[in-house]
UniProtKB/TrEMBL annotation:
Protein name: Lysine-specific demethylase 5B-B-like
GN (gene name): LOC104959750
Top-level taxonomy: Eukaryota, Metazoa, Chordata, Craniata, Vertebrata
Organism per entry: Notothenia coriiceps
Span of domain Lysine-specific demethylase-like: 1-206
InterPro entries linked: Lys_sp_deMease-like_dom
Length: 211
């Protein structure tokens, strides 16, 4: 690109006559300039700091496939851009992120730490990532599952059982969540049954003591 700029500058300063080659050079240089600007914006932009459109809303992001196509376009230009290998490296990182995300999304017992780590990494990628909504849902599920696991290390009160069930009801369905919800509901039913029986026995004894 610097070579193209230099040639165009010389053509203007030395008043070269207009011809097809010069027009072609301008078109190629213009395309390269535009690609360079977009590439630099993608390299600089993070999800939380990317530019906004005129109406104050966030501009639409490239999809991963569009980014992949853009990287191919950079390597097909008539000149080399310094951003091309950096953007290719960024694309590789995004693809690694997607592969890791898919693996985590299939985990039977997802880790809160691992999911949060993926979400943190995603802020470096100024592209649309379809995995993000699912990861956020999974994070809430994983937090609930860890809460259930932690609570299960000690005797559960009826209040704790009801609280955990209420929290789980609003979450998106997940295999482990459904299994733990069923177990908690069963424990709650048994506990409430025992509480009711104990209450009846206490009332019966109180009645006996009055005579």
């Amino acid at each position: 690109l610097p070579v193209f700029r230099s040639l165009l500058s010389q053509s203007e300063s030395k008043l070269f006559p207009e011809n097809d080659l010069l027009r072609r050079l301008r078109i190629v240089a213009s395309d390269a300039e535009k690609c360079s600007a977009v590439a630099q914006q993608l390299l600089n932009g993070k999800r939380q700091t990317r530019n906004r459109c005129g109406n104050g809303k966030l501009c639409s992001q490239l999809t991963v496939e569009e980014l992949r196509s853009f990287v191919r376009q950079l390597y097909n230009l008539s000149c080399s851009l310094p951003q091309a290998p950096k953007l290719k490296e960024l694309l590789n990182r995004i693809e690694d992120f997607q592969q890791h995300s898919e693996k985590v999304l299939l985990d039977e017992r997802p880790s809160v730490t691992e999911i949060q780590s993926l979400l943190d990494v995603s802020f470096d990628f100024d592209v649309g990532l379809p995995e993000l909504p699912r990861l956020r849902e999974l994070l809430e599920q994983a937090r609930w599952l860890e809460g259930v696991q932690s609570a299960g290390k000690q005797p559960l009160s009826l209040e704790t059982l009801r609280r955990l069930i209420d929290q789980g009801v609003g979450l998106t369905s997940h295999r482990s969540l459904e299994r733990d919800m069923a177990r908690l509901q069963e424990l709650l039913n048994v506990s409430e049954s025992w509480e009711e029986r104990a209450g009846r026995l206490m009332n019966a004894r109180s009645f006996d003591y009055t005579f």
